[in-house]
Each structure stands twice: as structure tokens, then as C-alpha cells.
Design a protein that fits this description.
Radius of gyration of chain A: 15 Å
Helix content of chain B: 10-25%
CATH class of chain A: Alpha Beta
Shape of chain B: globular
CATH architecture of the largest domain in chain B: 2-Layer Sandwich
Bound molecules: zinc ion
Number of helices of chain B: 4
Low-confidence stretches of chain B: none
Number of domains of chain A: 1
Oligomer: heterodimer
CATH architecture of chain A: 2-Layer Sandwich
Structural class of chain A: mainly beta
CATH topology of the largest domain in chain B: Gyrase A, domain 2
Strand order of the largest sheet of chain A: 3-4-5-6
Distance between the termini of chain A: 30 Å
Strand content of chain A: 35-45%
CATH topology of chain A: Folate-binding fold
Distance between the termini of chain B: 43 Å
Helix content of chain A: 10-25%
Largest sheet of chain B: 7 strands, mixed
Strand order of the largest sheet of chain B: 1-12-2-8-11-10-9
Number of helices of chain A: 2
Order of helices and strands of chain B: EEEHEEEHEEHEEEHE
Number of strands of chain A: 6
Number of domains of chain B: 2
Mean pLDDT of chain A: 91
Mean pLDDT of chain B: 95
Largest sheet of chain A: 4 strands, antiparallel
Order of helices and strands of chain A: EEEHEEEH
Largest interface: A-B, 21 and 21 residues
Chain lengths: 91, 208
């Protein structure tokens, strides 16, 4: 598998580290125990297209959001995760 | 209390034995460690990337690289090292932290890496063939011309790799910066890869 880093170009899998599902959002502070439990522990086991966080630690050290089909490994989109390269966009 | 005496020595001091190594005949690869350099990491602060590039332009005459490339200026090389960040490489005593802190004041965060990295220059007519064994990047001149840089890994070790100006005999030159503590391991890997082509091993105080 190869990932096209938006900053570096196409690189082999060995340069990247997998973090997991990019969908879960940290709940607000007053959301309650169930919401926090859900956010920290519960994950869908998706067979198909999934949004994932990957870290280009063996390269530019940017966090990426990768859209990948877990059945075929086909990658349909790669974008910088929030914060990566943010000095440019002022995010 | 114990007395400490600090002195500067190369992370490759033990591993590097100058001379000929590997297959006899004309050496296909030259491995040279450059020992006397200043290296400063510049990371633009949030929303300050464009101003950081401009500050580099005001000081060096060229903007800081915004894509993976290495730009030579009269007294430094600016090397892309990631989004909104680059390295300033110069001869020892050239572009020190104190000097650059004034150039990028309020725009970027700086970190002195001068003694945290080893600088290795790989050249010779088998240099690319040898590097192809250990790097997954296509270093063919059409894909990786002079001035191209890459933040990548060789032998599971993070390196900053860039193609410098050709040698006087026209041979390509690949430079790489590696963390000091990983330098010896990477050096042995490259030496093993280069042995079948014959290697000339040297160190130099001169930044090419
Ligand atoms: Zn990258």
C-alpha cells in the first residue's frame, strides 16, 4: 500500500503510522459519561470506505486524513488533518 | 562535583575510517561526512507562513522553500523539512541561532540542530544505484533533479535527503541529514550497500 502525502508525494506504507478512525469528535465538557465513553472506547468495525488518521512520521511528520476502503485498500482521498500545515491557512 | 569537559566530536567518529573500502578498482561511490556546519530548524508560527517565507527572502535573497526542495543562497542552503518548516544549513559559524533569531523574530520558532544531526554526502557513478537499494524514492534525474529535497526514511531512519549541485566531474551528489544517534547505524547500512561498487570514504570540514 502507498499513500500520496499532500506535502511529500507518493510514499511507501512503512513511512506512515496508523492512528484509527478519524470520525469521532471529542464531546463537549458537559456531554456526560456515556458520550465520553463512546468517544474514547467505542469504534465501528467498518468493512468498506472509512476515514482514518495516518501520521507521516517517517517523512514530513504531518498528520493526514485518509479515505480508505478497508476491503480493497483503495485510497480515494488524502488531506492534511486539522492543524497540519495550518500556519499557511491560518487555521 | 565531577568536572565535565565538553568537546565537539562527530557522531561518526568511530564508524568512519577514511580510505578505500569494498570492491577493488575504480570506486563507484564516495561517502563523505561533512563535519563543520551550522543547522537551524525554522518552523513558521500559526498564520505566519507567508511572512516567514518573505523574511527569508529579505535575508537570503530567495524565499524559503514551500515544497520539497533545497535552495542554495550565497551563504546558506534552505532545505524544506515539512509543511511550514525548513532548515537553514551553513558553514560552521555561518548562520547561527543568534543571527537567525533576529531574522525571524515573532514569525517562526527556531531550534538549533547543528550538533543534533550528521551530514553525509553520497556521490559517484554508482551513488544512485546504491541509494536505490535503501531508499524507496525514485532518484532518477528526471524525477529528482538538482535542488529536489525529500523528508523520508532510509533503513527505518528519518532523513532529510536532497540533491546538491553536481560534482565538478558531472557526477550527481546526494546529501542527507540524519539524527546524530542514528548516524552510525545508517552509515553502516550505506557502507554495506556500497561495498560491491567500491567506496572512497572521507570526511571534510567543507560544506560543498
Ligand atoms: Zn509527508
Amino acid at each position: 500500500m502507498r499513500i500520496v502525502c499532500p506535502f511529500c508525494g507518493e510514499r511507501e506504507l512503512g513511512e506512515f503510522t496508523y492512528l484509527g478512525d478519524a470520525k469521532p469528535q471529542r464531546p463537549p465538557a458537559d456531554a456526560g459519561e456515556d458520550a465520553v465513553y463512546d468517544y474514547v472506547y467505542l469504534r465501528d468495525n467498518i468493512a468498506g470506505v472509512m476515514s482514518e488518521h495516518w501520521y507521516h512520521g517517517g517523512g514530513c511528520r504531518a498528520w493526514l486524513k485518509v479515505t480508505r476502503n478497508t476491503l480493497t485498500h483503495e485510497i480515494s482521498a488524502v488531506e492534511p488533518a486539522a492543524g497540519a500545515g495550518s500556519a499557511k491557512v491560518g487555521a | 562535583m565531577a568536572d565535565f569537559s565538553w568537546y565537539i566530536r562527530s557522531p561518526l567518529e568511530r564508524a568512519l575510517v577514511a580510505g578505500r573500502y569494498g570492491a577493488p578498482g575504480e570506486a563507484g561511490v564516495s561517502l563523505t561526512e561533512i563535519r563543520n556546519f551550522d543547522l537551524v530548524q525554522v518552523m513558521a508560527r500559526r498564520g505566519k507562513a507567508a511572512e516567514t517565507v518573505n523574511a527569508a527572502k529579505a535575508r537570503f535573497g530567495v524565499g524559503a522553500p514551500e515544497t520539497p526542495e533545497a535552495v542554495d543562497t550565497t551563504d546558506a542552503t534552505l532545505i524544506w523539512s515539512g509543511p511550514d518548516q525548513f532548515l537553514v544549513l551553513s558553514r560552521g559559524g555561518g548562520q547561527r541561532m543568534e543571527t537567525l533569531a533576529r531574522v525571524f523574530a515573532g514569525l517562526a520558532s527556531l531550534s538549533d540542530q547543528s550538533h543534533a544531526r550528521a551530514l553525509i554526502s553520497v556521490s559517484g557513478d554508482k551513488a544512485r544505484t546504491m541509494l536505490a537499494k535503501v531508499s524507496s524514492i525514485d532518484l532518477h534525474p528526471e524525477m529528482f533533479p538538482v535542488g529536489t529535497a525529500a523528508a523520508t526514511s532510509i533503513d527505518h531512519t528519518s532523513v532529510t535527503l536532497w540533491r546538491g549541485k553536481n560534482r565538478q566531474d558531472g557526477q550527481a551528489v546526494f546529501n542527507l541529514l540524519v539524527f546524530a544517534t542514528f548516524a552510525e547505524s545508517l552509515w553502516h547500512t550505506m557502507l554495506d550497500s556500497a561495498a560491491e561498487y567500491g567506496v572512497t570514504i572521507a570526511h571534510s570540514e567543507e560544506l560543498a
